[in-house]
Structure formats: structure tokens, C-alpha cells
From TrEMBL:
Cellular location(s): Cell membrane
Pfam families: dCache_1, HAMP, HATPase_c, His_kinase
First-tier enzyme category under EC: transferase
Organism: Paenibacillus harenae
Domain named Histidine kinase: residues: 419-618
InterPro entries per the UniProt record, alphabetical: Bact_2-comp_sensor_kinase, dCache_1, HAMP_dom, HATPase_C_sf, HATPase_dom, His_kinase_dom, Sig_transdc_His_kin-like_C, Sig_transdc_His_kin_internal
Annotated transmembrane regions: 327-349
GO MF annotations, alphabetized: protein histidine kinase activity
Full protein name: histidine kinase
Length: 623
């Protein structure tokens, strides 16, 4: 309801505005709304297109990057399988295991420490480190390769990145993790360590048992990956997407991240990580109050998940430029449209204002004005019509003056002719008195009834009378007919006492009764019965006029009812009597409305019933 009132107020304000302001407002709306709509659609579609293309492109880059990382890890796994095929490495490990086994047994038997056999150790060390040097020449990019014998003694060769200072602790962790792995290689997440160069390093590792042909464990080989391989690819990805990226394993351990702040930490409880369900996809999330687009994919080989987050502001910066340009163009266009609309609105409404001034002059009574027509457009045509209207008004004033003069003359003549009906009534009364004086009561009664009928029907047909008066008129009519046709017609009236004073327009029943007598009389019967019944029903007041005359066939009845309903014109016919009924029907509809009127029911040899439907208002009486 409030919204409706608000719209009504806006419409009222707009309706009260001057025409030039309306035109300016319409011009501005016609220009502004399409531009704003086009700008909004362009901005939205462009932003959506950029987002979709970024997702597709970034996903492809992430997948390609993970393929390269998978290839790198696959090479590391192949490196760890080299000792299984190099007898030299296995022989050196066997020598190392036998040497330290013999020393342990000898120390156990004597309880004393046995001097080191430096020649043997040097031979073993040179042999294994030579093998490590050979491995490093096979695959560049490995930070360090560690080979351990069965007792945890490590052999390694320092690479450019240095070796772990915590080699012993790392070996214990690796050995425990691969204890039940058989001979399969295991991938370890990125770990932070301090190298022998006293610098902090990050590396992820591939570790495998070294076994002989009898599946006996000879030692362990571990390869530390060069984290820079991933770093270079992540840097390239972040440069293209203007985002930040990270790689995590399936347990939530960070392999690498762009900021290098969370490497080797566990972030499985991070909200963004929790939302990255499935193997790949994208979603929006807020980080530090900034909305970001997250795109992720998963390696099918390592189950490592790479995720990049791109600020939405970076995605839409080009779209924002388009939006701003569109708004600037819109404002400039609105300004130009305002100037043009102001000029054209005043140019269009100026002739109308001139016409309004002329109309005010005419309103004051001066008809000696004329609108100057300068064009053939709608305003010029309106001016022509205005000029013709002024001329026509002058003619009408002259005609009205002449008509008023003639009307006064007609009123004088009407006053003079009012004596004619009274003269007729007086003449009939004189004839009736003469008939009574000459002992002719029948003629006197007939003349008296005729006078009543004439007096009743001579006044306004739209005048309302009571039902009792209308029925009295019908009685007089039937009584007069019975003088002409002695005892030929019987009138039966049934009406509740409370309906006698109900108003009805006059002369609606007598034409129906007359129609029934003259078109339904059956010469084979001694008399004809006409019944008038009145009842109050749901649909209104019903007056039924029923006779026991000859009736009418179905075709005639259908044409008559269709004529009464307005379907076709009534055709004068002796059988149908449609003219009188249609006149009564039209008078009822004109007076009471189209919902009321006549309906005819009839069967051959069974008489005819005319139902007159009128509105019923309880308690209403004639004025």
C-alpha cells in the first residue's frame, strides 16, 4: 500500500510538471538509462569473461607446472634406483657394512675400541663418493645425494648448495619412514635445514632402500631436490597472474609458497585449504580484508596440490577502466543531452504556450483571436483545428441564441396547447354523462375505462409507479377488452402485499398482455386465462405473464429470444409479436441496466410465458 502511494505521489508530481520539464526529463531518461544499462552489461560481461579466461589459463599453467615438477620428481626417483643397478655401489656398501659389523663384533668380544682402518675407510669413502659424483653428473639440479650403509654411516659429496648439518637426525627420520616400504621410493615434504655453509636451506627429498638381489637391505639412498626448480616456475606463474601461489602435500604440509613464510609448515586448518576440495576448481575468499580468486589443481602422481590466489582487483582492473570510461562518456552525453533537450523542449512547447495564452483570451470571452500557423506538423495542425474551433464556437453561439429564441416561442405554444388533453378528457366525460342520461351504462363504463387508460399512458414513460397501479392499468385494459369480447378473457393476479408499493416504470406490463391476447388467442377455447405472478428471487424481482394460448414453435421462440438479447433485429410477424416485446425490453435495459429484461418460454398448444426480470431492493418505494 505504501509503495502504491509512493508511485501515486511520483506520478502526481510528474503530471503537475510543465511540458518542457517533462520533455527534458524524458530526454535524459531515454539517454541515461540505455547508456547506464549498456555500461553495466559491458562491465559485468567483461569481468565475467576475464574471470573465466583467467581460471582456464591459470588452471592450464598450474597443470603444466605440476607436470614439470612431476617429471623432476620422477627423475629423482630414477636417481634413487641407480644403486640397484650399480654393482660398484652395492659392493662398496657391503664393504662398509662388513667393516662396521666386524668392528662391532670385535669391540663386543674384547670390550676395547679397535683402531680405525683408515685405508679401508678411505677406499670405501672414495668409492661411494665417486659413485655420488657420477650420479650428480647424470641429473643436474639435485642439491645433495646421500648414501648410508646399514649402520647409518653416511657418504656424500658437497654440491653447490652444501650438505645438511643434521644428516644423522634426517637419516633416523628417513629410515623409520621407509622401514616398511620395501624397495619403493618415498617422497618427503620440504624441510628446513642448515647447510655446512651456515645458511638456511629448503629441500624436499626422495628416499629409497638399497637392496641386493636377495632383497637384503644394504643401505639407504636419499636425494635432496633443488627447491629453486619449483621457485622459478612459481615466480613465473605469479608474474603472469599477479597473484601468490603455494604447493602443499596431501597432509597439508607446505612444499613451497611465494612468500617463503610457510615453507615446511602444516596449514591443513587454513580456511582456503579446506575449501579447495576435489582435484581442481576455483572459489572466492577474503584474505586480510581483500577478496581473492583461488584456483587449484592436484598432481595425479604425487597428490601435491598447487594453489594460486589472485586479487579480484587485479582481475577487474581493465574492466574498471572500461567502467570509468563508460561513466565519463555517460556524464558527457548527459550534459550534451541536457543542453539539446532544453533547447528542443522550449522550441517544441513555445507554440503550445502561445496557444494557451490564446485559450485564456477566449475563456475571457474574446473570440477575435487566431493562432499563427507556421508549419504543417502536429502543432500546426492543432493550430488549424484551434482556429476552426473558434470559428465554430462563434457559429454555435449564434445558433444557440437562435435556438433559445425559438425555444421560448415553443414554450408559449406548449402552454397554449396544454388545453388540448384537458379538452379531450372533458369531452370523454361529457360523452359518458350523456350515455348515463340515456340509460346506456355499458357505453358509459367503456368511455370511463378508456379515459383512465388514456390518462395513465399520456404522461412520461420513464416515470416510476407502484406495481399495484401498473396492475390496475392492466385490469382496466382487460376489462375494456371484455366489453368488446364478452367474458373472453380471465385475468389472475398473484402478488404479495409487501410488493404492491414496489416501484416500476409504467406501461411495461400492458404491452406484454396485449401481445399475448392478439398473438396467442386460441379460437378453439371458450376463454383465455392470463396470469400475472410476482415473486422476489435471488436474481431480482420476477414478474411472470403466462397465457394458455396457441404458443409458438421452437424456431420462432429461438428467433424471438435472440432478438431480445440483441442477437438479431426483430422481424415484424403476426406470430412472434417481437416489436412490442422488444420495445419493452429495451426500455427496461435502458432504465435498469443490461442485466435485466425479458425472457420468453413457449410450446405449441401449451401457451406462452414471458418472464420480466427487474432489480429488487427491499424497502424501496416510489418517490
Amino acid at each position: 500500500m505504501r509503495l502504491k502511494k509512493r508511485f501515486w505521489r511520483i506520478g502526481s508530481i510528474f503530471g503537475d510538471m510543465r511540458m518542457e520539464r517533462k520533455l527534458i526529463a524524458v530526454f535524459l531518461l531515454v539517454v541515461t538509462l540505455p547508456l547506464a544499462f549498456i555500461g553495466y552489461i559491458s562491465y559485468t560481461n567483461y569481468s565475467l569473461s576475464i574471470e573465466q579466461k583467467t581460471i582456464v589459463y591459470s588452471t592450464k599453467m598450474l597443470e603444466n607446472m605440476m607436470v614439470r615438477v612431476d617429471d623432476y620428481i620422477e627423475d629423482m626417483i630414477r636417481i634413487t634406483s641407480i644403486p640397484a643397478y650399480q654393482d660398484d655401489i652395492k659392493q662398496n656398501l657391503i664393504k662398509s657394512n662388513n667393516y662396521y659389523e666386524q668392528r662391532r663384533q670385535a669391540a663386543g668380544e674384547s670390550g676395547k675400541s679397535i683402531p680405525e682402518d683408515f685405508n679401508m675407510l678411505l677406499s670405501i669413502q672414495r668409492g661411494i663418493e665417486g659413485n655420488i659424483s657420477f650420479i650428480n653428473t647424470i641429473k643436474r639440479g639435485a642439491n645433495s645425494v646421500y648414501i648410508f650403509d646399514q649402520f647409518g654411516n653416511g657418504y656424500f659429496q658437497a654440491a653447490a648448495g652444501g650438505i645438511r648439518l643434521n644428516v644423522k637426525e634426517s637419516y633416523d627420520d628417513w629410515r623409520e619412514a621407509i622401514e616398511s616400504s620395501g624397495g619403493e621410493a618415498m617422497l618427503f615434504s620440504t624441510q628446513k635445514y642448515t647447510s655446512n655453509l651456515q645458511s638456511e636451506k629448503f629441500a624436499f627429498s626422495v628416499v629409497r632402500k638399497v637392496i641386493d638381489k636377495s632383497l637384503k637391505t644394504l643401505g639407504v639412498i636419499a636425494v635432496d631436490a633443488n627447491i629453486s626448480v619449483i621457485e622459478d616456475q612459481i615466480t613465473e606463474l605469479d608474474k603472469v597472474t599477479s597473484g601468490k601461489s603455494l604447493i602443499i602435500d596431501e597432509k597439508g604440509n607446505v612444499i613451497y609458497d611465494s612468500d617463503r613464510q610457510r615453507i615446511s609448515t602444516n596449514i591443513q586448518d587454513d580456511p582456503a585449504v579446506k575449501q579447495a576440495a576435489g582435484t581442481k576448481g576455483s572459489f572466492y575468499d577474503e584474505q586480510d580484508g581483500e577478496k581473492r580468486l583461488y584456483i587449484y589443481t592436484t598432481s595425479p602422481n604425487t597428490n601435491w596440490k598447487v594453489m594460486t590466489s589472485i586479487p579480484v582487483s587485479e582481475l577487474t582492473k581493465d574492466a574498471v577502466v572500461i567502467r570509468n570510461v563508460t561513466w565519463i562518456a555517460t556524464f558527457v552525453t548527459i550534459l550534451v543531452a541536457l543542453l539539446l533537450s532544453t533547447f528542443f523542449s522550449f522550441a517544441l512547447t513555445n507554440p503550445l504556450r502561445k496557444m494557451m495564452r490564446l485559450m485564456k483570451t477566449v475563456q475571457e470571452g474574446d473570440f477575435n483571436v487566431q493562432f499563427p500557423v507556421k508549419s504543417r506538423d502536429e502543432v500546426g495542425q492543432l493550430g488549424n483545428q484551434f482556429n476552426r474551433m473558434i470559428v465554430r464556437i462563434g457559429q454555435l453561439i449564434s445558433d444557440i441564441y437562435e435556438m433559445e429564441t425559438k425555444k421560448k416561442e415553443a414554450e408559449l405554444q406548449a402552454l397554449q396547447s396544454q388545453i388540448n388533453p384537458h379538452f379531450m378528457y372533458n369531452s370523454l366525460e361529457s360523452i359518458r354523462m350523456a350515455a348515463e342520461l340515456n340509460d346506456d351504462p355499458v357505453a358509459a363504463d367503456m368511455i370511463s375505462i378508456l379515459g383512465k387508460l388514456l390518462r395513465y399512458s399520456i404522461s412520461d414513460l420513464h416515470e416510476e409507479v407502484t406495481l399495484s397501479r401498473e396492475f390496475g392499468h392492466v385490469r382496466n385494459y382487460v376489462e375494456l377488452l371484455n366489453y368488446r369480447y364478452p367474458n373472453r378473457f380471465v385475468l389472475e393476479i398473484k402478488m404479495a402485499e409487501q410488493l404492491e408499493q414496489y416501484p416500476i416504470i409504467k406501461l411495461v406490463l400492458q404491452p406484454i398482455v396485449e401481445n399475448a391476447i392478439y398473438h396467442g388467442m386460441d379460437d378453439s377455447k371458450p376463454f383465455m386465462t392470463i396470469g400475472l405472478h410476482v415473486e422476489a428471487a435471488m436474481q431480482g424481482m420476477l414478474v411472470r405473464i403466462k397465457d394458455d394460448g396457441v404458443g409458438m414453435d421452437a424456431d420462432t421462440l429461438e428467433r424471438l429470444n435472440r432478438s431480445l438479447s440483441g442477437g438479431e433485429e426483430a422481424v415484424p410477424s403476426r406470430k412472434s409479436g417481437g416489436i412490442g416485446l422488444k420495445n419493452v425490453n429495451e426500455r427496461i435495459k435502458l432504465h435498469y441496466g443490461i442485466s435485466y429484461g425479458l425472457k420468453v418460454y413457449s410450446r405449441p398448444k401449451h401457451g406462452t410465458e414471458v418472464v420480466l426480470q427487474l432489480p429488487f431492493e427491499p424497502g424501496r418505494e416510489t418517490e
